[in-house]
Input
Amino acid sequence: MLNFDISALPTPCYVVDEKLLKKNLEILASVRERTGCRILLAQKAFSMYSTYPLISKYLDGTTASGLFEVRLGKEEMPDRETHVYSPAYSEKEFGEIVSVADHIVFNSFRQFERFSRFIKESERDIEVGIRMNPEYSEIETDIYNPCFENSRLGTVLSEFPDKLPDGISGLHFHTMCEQGADVLERTVKVVEERFGKYLPGLKWLNFGGGHHITRDDYDVEKLVDVVNYIQNKYGLTVYLEPGEAVALNAGFLVSEVLDTMKNSMDIAILDTSAACHMPDVLEMPYRPNIIGAGMPGEKPYTYRFGGPTCLAGDIIGEYSFDQPLKTGDRLVFCDMAIYSMVKNNTFNGMPLPSIVYCNEQGECTIVKSFGYEDFKSRL
Ligand SMILES: *Cc1c(COP(=O)(O)O)cnc(C)c1O
Output
C-alpha cells in the first residue's frame, strides 16, 4: 500500500510521497490547461520548499499571507508568479514585499491608499487588487469562515466606492474551506450579483483557496465550467490558490509506540503529539486515519492514542487493531503533508518530526531533521 519502507525511517517523521504529490499536480495542471486559468500554491498549507521545483512544473507560482511566505515563494520558486495578501501590511515590511511580489492584494481601500505610493515608487510591474467580502460562505465552523459576522477579512460591498480607483486591476475573494465546485458555483453567482458592476474591465479575479480539487469526488468538470464562464463573460483571467488540494493525501506522519497502559481502556503513548505535530487534530478538530486501523471497537483491540506531552488533552483519537500494540510498533497517520509541518511547534520541549521525501522509485531522503537547538533557539 505504501510506496516506501517505514522501518528504516527516523520517528517521528513526515513523509511526502512524490507519486501522490504528482497525482494532485496533474489534476491541477489539467484545470489550467482546459481553462487557461492560473493556479498558485497557497504556502500557508504546505511550504515544503524542496518540492517547489516539482510544483513549479505544474503550477503558476505561490501565494503568501505576509512577508516571510512571500519571500520564501520568491526565493524558492523564482521563475513563477509571487502573490501576497495580508489582512494588514506594516510599513516596515512593505518595502521588502514590494521588491518581490508580482501581485499584491489589499484587504481594504484604506490599505490600498496608504501603500500604493510605495508600489509606484518601486517602478516594478505589480498587479494590485482588493479582497472583497461577498458576505456569503457555506463554511459552518466559525474560525474557518472568513464571512462570519463582523469579519475582518475583506471589504464588504457597502464599503466599496462607486468606481474602483485607478491602479486596481483585480479583485479577490476567499470564502471556502475543503469544499466542492457546487459551493464555488453558488459563491460565484453571489459575487456576480453583488459585485457585478466592478467586474467588467478587470484583468483578473482571484477565487482564493478552499477548493478541494484533488479529492476523489470533486467535480472538476463543474470547476472548469465556472472558470470558463467567468473568464469568457468578463475577458479576465481567473486565479485559484489552493493550499490543501496541492498536497492533499500526499503525505504521512510516521510514529512509534513508546508505551501502553490501562485506565478503564487501553491507552498507547506515541512519540508524536497532536498538540505539537498535528495541531489541526485538536483545532479543526478531526480524526486522522491510520493505515491498518479501524474505528474504535471495529477490530478486537482498541486504543486511545496520546502524545508524550504533559497536556491532558493531547489526544489523537481512538483506533482499533487486529493485534495488541507493543512498544516499538510503528503507526502511519494519513494526510499529514498539509497544515502539519507549517503549524508544528516545540511546546513542552517536543522534538520536531524529521521531514522525509520519498521519490517515485520509493527511495526516501531525509530532507531535514531537527534537534535541541531548534527548541532552544526560539526562546
Ligand atoms: C487559507 C487560504 C488559502 C488556501 O486555502 P486551502 O483551504 O488550503 O485551499 C488561499 N487563499 C487565502 C487568502 C487563504 O487565506
Q: What stands out?
A: The mean pLDDT is 98. The first helix runs from residue 18 to 35. The pocket of pyridoxal-5'-phosphate is lined by residues 42, 44-45, 85, 174, 177, 208-210, 241-245 (CB under 6 Å).
